[in-house]
Design brief:
Ubiquitin-like (UB roll), alpha/beta
């Protein structure tokens, strides 16, 4: 009886060992076979972040085994970046990683003591860089900040009010602006991103809802206007338009 039991135990052990070996071989096949290596990253929702930015933040690279990528870890790394509001990460066999993000919207850039900063609507620094990059967002001039880095919040009250105003504009309107100039305290002038920049005199930072609506309407109609415009002034009850001579 003892011999039979030993044979049965050995048979169970052998079956278990065989199962483990086969399972390990299957796992190794899917993890290491070249057919299942990462060769494509599909990035959806990015307007300001590049695929290179995403791969650096997520610490992933083309050519690594797809099944060794832990999607929850990749997602966690990306979600820690201030520029990313929401993110989902999924594998798509045989060789694709899908990354869908919703970015925090940078509204303006501003000069600092070591370069430039991108700011969101509440004044949080989303990005910093030493040399001026291709402008996708307008620049705030007439103010400079010091010793601010990613994650810091600007404390300049005028700049904060400007960001609040820009937050009221739709993205299309924002992209039509090149500069927000603080001419003097509490007097603001916008410049259109056209071949011949047009002044949009916002003036005092009051009636901002109304002025945001007027700015959108003016820029929507600017290209259709047959006459060259020098500036528009929104300080008055009725906007005043000065045509170029």
């Amino acid at each position: 009886m003892a011999v039979i039991r030993r044979r049965r135990n050995f048979g169970c052990f052998f079956k278990g060992l065989t199962f483990l070996v086969v399972s390990a071989a299957v796992i190794a096949f899917f993890v290491y076979v070249p057919f299942f290596t990462l060769s494509e990253i599909k990035l959806d929702g990015a307007k300001y972040l590049t695929q290179e930015d995403i791969t650096k933040i997520a610490d992933i690279y083309i050519g690594e085994p797809l099944f060794k990528l832990e999607t929850d870890v990749v997602q966690s790394r990306l979600s820690k970046d201030l520029r990313i509001a929401e993110v989902t990460v999924r594998r798509r066999l045989p060789h694709t990683l899908e990354i869908k993000i919703k970015e925090r919207r940078p509204l303006a850039m501003i000069q600092c003591n070591y370069g430039y900063l991108d700011l969101d609507h509440d004044g949080t620094v989303l990005d910093s860089y030493k040399t001026l990059k291709t402008m996708q967002i307008p620049m705030i001039t007439g103010a400079a900040v010091r010793d601010l880095y990613i994650g810091d919040v600007i404390d300049d009250e005028i700049v904060k009010k400007i960001l609040g105003f820009l937050h009221m504009l739709n993205e299309e309107t924002l992209n039509r602006l090149s500069e927000i100039a603080i001419v003097e305290q509490n007097y603001i002038v916008l410049y259109s991103a056209t071949d011949r920049p047009v002044q949009i005199r916002i003036g005092k930072l009051e009636r901002l809802d109304e002025k945001a609506h007027l700015t959108e309407e003016f820029l929507n109609n600017l290209e259709k206007n047959p006459h060259a415009v020098e500036y528009v002034d929104f300080n008055y009850t009725a906007p005043f338009i000065k045509l170029a001579e």
